[in-house]
Design a protein that fits this description.
about 85% helix; 5 helices; mainly alpha
């Protein structure tokens, strides 16, 4: 099965979230593990959102694609604020596992760039 690069990134971020769940379940407890999974899930959800928005504009003109990209980035930012606000309410006492797993999930973009061939 051939996945697009953005969907591959989202899959890697979800896998990093699951690894974060495992690591934080050993280091902390169930609430830390759930927070870590939520952090990885935020990254994956934002990537899936961008993949769907940009994928829908594939047949559009260049101007429309650029416009779609900028609108999608703004909505992605709003979605991130909403998701992190929810996370702050749910995991206020264990926010470190959430944010560290989200940050580690951002490395999926770097690994995706390594896989892109000229």
């Amino acid at each position: 099965m051939l996945l697009s690069v953005p969907l591959r990134i989202a899959l890697w971020q979800l896998l990093i979230g699951v690894m974060g769940l495992l690591v934080w379940s050993v280091l902390g407890g169930w609430k830390e593990a759930l927070a870590a999974l939520f952090g990885g899930g935020i990254g994956a959800l934002l990537s899936v959102y961008m993949a769907l928005r940009l994928g829908a504009a594939n047949d559009a003109s260049l101007r429309d694609r650029v416009s779609t990209f900028y609108r999608a980035e703004v909505m992605k930012f709003v979605l991130a604020v909403v998701l992190f606000s929810i996370a702050a309410l749910l995991f206020a006492d264990v926010y470190i596992p959430l944010i560290t797993t989200f940050i580690v999930g951002l490395t999926a973009y770097w690994f995706a760039l390594l896989r892109i061939k000229d």
